[in-house]
Amino acid sequence: MTIDYPNISIILNKYLFGEICLNVETSATVTESIEDLASTGFSREGDPNDHELFEKYYSIVNKNQGINFKIYTFKGKIWSSGLDFYGFRLSTILKMINKPANTRLFLDNKNSDGALIINDLCVCRFSYHNENPLALTFETNAAIIDDMKNRKISTKTVENDFTEISEVLARSSNRKLRKIKQILVATGHILK
C-alpha cells in the first residue's frame, strides 16, 4: 500500500483538531470494527481483553520513506490511532501542520531522543541522526470511547519519560537544542 505527503498532512491536521483518523486509504470505507481491521491487512498484537494494537505499513512512492498506521483498541473497542514514521525528518513533518502550533520540547537525559508536545494535544517523538532530527511517531490524546477520554496518555507519557526544555535553554550553546529551535521557527511553530 502507498500514501503521499498530502494524505499524511490531512491525518496530522485531523489529530491537531482533536479528531481521530481511522482510515488512511481514500477509497476505503472507515473502519468500524476489529474484524474490519483484520480483513484489510492490519497486523495485530496485544491482549483482546485489554489493549491491542493494529498496524499497517504504507510506503511513499519513489522515496525511501513510509508510515506505519496504528489503531489502538481497549477491551475490543477502537479508541485512537497514531503514526510511526520511517525516513522522515522532523522538519518535514512539522511543515505538514497547516497552522502555527504551540510546542513544548522534551529530551531524554542523553539529549539523543525527544518529543514535542503540540498544542497540549499531540506528541511527535524524534531522534537525532547526524544532527538532523528524524521523526519517529505522532500520537494524540484524543479518544473515541469514554473509558479512554481525558486520560492524556500521549502527553503524560512524555512528561514522565523526558525532561522539559524551556525556551530559554533552547537558545543555549547546545547544538542539538538550537537545531530544534531553528526547525520550529522555520516551520512557523512556537516554543513555549
Q: Biggest sheet: strands, sense, closure?
A: 11 strands, mixed
Strand content: 35-45%
- What's the SSE pattern? EHHEEEEHEEEEHEHHE
Shape: globular
Uncertain runs? none
Query: What is the tally of beta strands?
Result: 11
Count the DSSP helices: 6
Q: Ends: how far apart?
A: 38 Å
Overall pLDDT level: 90
User: Looking at the chains present, what oligomeric state does this protein adopt?
Assistant: single chain
- How much helix is in the residues? 25-40%
Can you tell me the number of structural domains?
1
Radius of gyration, whole Å: 17 Å
Class by helix and strand content? alpha+beta
Task: Give a quick precis of the structure.
By secondary structure, the chain is of the alpha+beta class. The protein contains six helices and eleven strands.
Give short descriptive properties of this protein:
single chain; 192 residues; alpha+beta; eleven-stranded mixed β-sheet; 11 strands; 26% helix; globular
How is this structure best described in words?
With 192 residues, this protein is an alpha+beta fold. The protein has one domain. 26% of the residues lie in helices and 36% in strands. It contains six helices and eleven strands. Strand 6 (102-107) and strand 7 form a beta hairpin. The radius of gyration is 17 Å and the shape is globular.
Helix and strand arrangement:
Elements: E1 2-3, H1 5-16, H2 34-39, E2 43-46, E3 51-60, E4 66-74, E5 77-86, H3 90-95, E6 102-107, E7 113-118, E8 122-129, E9 132-140, H4 153-161, E10 163-165, H5 167-170, H6 175-186, E11 190-191
Parallel strand pairs: 1-3, 6-11
Antiparallel strand pairs: 2-3, 3-4, 4-5, 5-9, 6-7, 6-10, 7-8, 8-9
